Amino acid sequence: MAAVPLLLLLRAGGSCRRHRRLLTASSSSSCSAGGGRAAERGERPDSAGLGFSPPAHSHNDWIGPPDKHSNLRPVIFYVPPEESPLERRLREARQEAQACNQRFWARHNCAFRQEKEEFIYSRLKAKGLEMRDEKGQKATLNAEEMADFYKDFLSKNFRKHMQYNRWPTMPFLTHPLTNKS
């Protein structure tokens, strides 16, 4: 039941709704943020897939190692035994923001790597070269050639980056969480 107001709150702020439109093209299980149900039960979120697990007696948030897809460091949020409704809403909003960031950067980085490989392959093919040289090492392009790729990639993704950078100004971060009514 508490998730519904949070979703409405986030939709009013517009953050993840915009991100979901931008990021619905591909989805992978490695991009999901776990632990939602455990948090709803007042337990510590499952950290099995994160590669680290904080001690059960800890009373702090724990920050893990960088995720291999998004390069973001996941947070396991501490849930106090007597968490107030306002504290819960704030924690859930932070978890939702973390999940949105995770999805955005995992998909962005995946697209970046894929497009970079395609760019390198096409340039090497145009030069009549293979992906690997005689010694079996991966062939590379020089900095000038790669600058063309980086410029094109940033230009092509400019709108996504602008939308992503707008989300921290969500009204729910200041108004609804401080309003006790």
Automatic annotation (TrEMBL):
The keyword Mitochondrion applies. It is a peripheral membrane protein. Residues 27-60 are annotated as: Disordered. GO terms for biological process: intrinsic apoptotic signaling pathway. It is found in: Mitochondrion inner membrane. It holds the Pfam family COA8. Its main location: mitochondrion. It comes from the Eukaryota. Keywords: Membrane, Mitochondrion, Mitochondrion inner membrane, Transit peptide. The keyword Lipoprotein does not apply. One of its GO terms (cellular component) is mitochondrial inner membrane. Belongs to the COA8 family. PANTHER family: APOPTOGENIC PROTEIN 1, MITOCHONDRIAL (PTHR31107), CYTOCHROME C OXIDASE ASSEMBLY FACTOR 8 (PTHR31107:SF2). This is Cytochrome c oxidase assembly factor 8 isoform X2. The lineage of its organism: Eukaryota, Metazoa, Chordata, Craniata, Vertebrata.
